[in-house]
Amino acid sequence: MLKLRRSAARTIVLAALAATVAAGCAIQTEGTAVSPLYDPYRVGGLPAVDGPSGIRPDAPRPVGKVFNTDKGDIDTLALSAVNDIEEFWSQHYREPFAGTFRRVNRLISYDAEDRDSPRICGASPYGQPNAFFCPRDRSIAWDRGVLLPIGVKYFGPMSVVGLVAHEYGHALQYMAELVDQDTAPIVREQQADCFAGVYIRHVAEGNSRRFQIDTADGLSHVLASLIAIRDPLLGPDDEKMLEFGHGTAVDRVTAFQTGFVRGLDACVAIDLRDVEERRGELPMSLQEGRDGALETGEAPVNERTLAVLFEGLDQIYAPTAAPELVFASSPDDHDCPDARATAPASYCPATNTVTVDVEALRALGQPGDERTNAVLLQGDNTALSIVVSRYLLAVQHERGLPLRSAATALRTACLTGMAQRHLSEPVELPSGEQLWLTAGDIDEAAAGLLTNGQAATDVDGATVPAGFTRIVAFRSGLVDHADGETCYARFG
């Protein structure tokens, strides 16, 4: 959804990389970032390793009653999640929480496709694939027919555990007296995501009796599920949703990571100012075009789009020797003596060129139908952020920095985040066009970092094990107002 506008002509919007739900398969690189906070082989202090994720083979059988259950696998999984989450919070409920821990009163299962589903929290859940906490009777309900099965299919069973942990986070807010009728809904939602991160950290440390999760692909899938159920893109008349929604994909991932890394006290400290400061001046809603229609944020990926993107990057970074944009004539067209091909976009230090296979980029840019809830967020900036990252390898090369290491991969992610901030405001170009990000673009880049990870790779396409760490590096650049110097200092 990068937007290009010619001063006295039509507007077009750049479309998209189709991010797959499967975790990235880029090779991993060696090396160590300067700061231990951004260690490429650790996730919040834990080793970043692959392994099993889901229910433990020796997990105790779930206990408790689920109203309206079909006694199927989904309800069994959700009940086990409730058991485990309650066990965790009963042991870790402490100040700054008020009062004492109390289990929720009722668990309810329903099928969003069943017209005869019982009323829950005063309303019919028919046609509402959802999961929610109801304060009036302190109950938690989930859709066993649509939402949870999709989560298991595309993101694995731990996505359901994470979802239930989020809803239990709302129960914690009420029992701990953290919220009232004046609390902005976005704060409630961000805190609930944060509390889910605290609990999942407990699982990742190997302390759960029922579940296990690896800190590489397994944790990436949980983050991907948060992105998949972010708020829809907002229009100019939807400003209230900035405070009344669940948040953007980056909002949700950031809140979860806050709980995972910093713990309970950091979750309680989340307020509206915190959310707004994290968002900064990044675009939050789509605008109306000249024809009065809401911009879609989608347009073809083509040579003109990429040429204007490079013109904008030249304007922002003004390198002494700007890299040349070259269009590949075949998938194997990358004749470079000192770097491997990293399709769909490759940087060659020897020739200072960025070679782009437009057809491959276009294939990655075919958006999926998010109405099915069966795809991860997809869009132009998931694709174009990859191209931007290759340009930024040229910027690093000009500074004499090494281009092959884990630090390089994370530095590139960080600088790509910084570029997003620069592109969030219109850039006037010599050609008379303007280039800038629109709502949803940052989320699209984040989705790519979790899946293919290509915007967080070194010159040979090597990345680090955890999508969690790639997003941390990206976000550190996104909020950096020192023109990238923080990225160079952290990942020297």
TrEMBL record:
InterPro entries: Uncharacterised_pept_Zn_put (IPR007343). Residues 1-18 form the signal peptide. SUPFAM superfamilies: Metalloproteases ('zincins'), catalytic domain. It comes from the Bacteria. It is found in: Membrane. Keywords: Lipoprotein, Membrane, Signal, Transmembrane, Transmembrane helix. It is a single-pass membrane protein. GO terms for cellular component: membrane. This is Lipoprotein peptidase LpqM. The lineage of its organism: Bacteria, Bacillati, Actinomycetota, Actinomycetes, Mycobacteriales. The gene is lpqM_2.
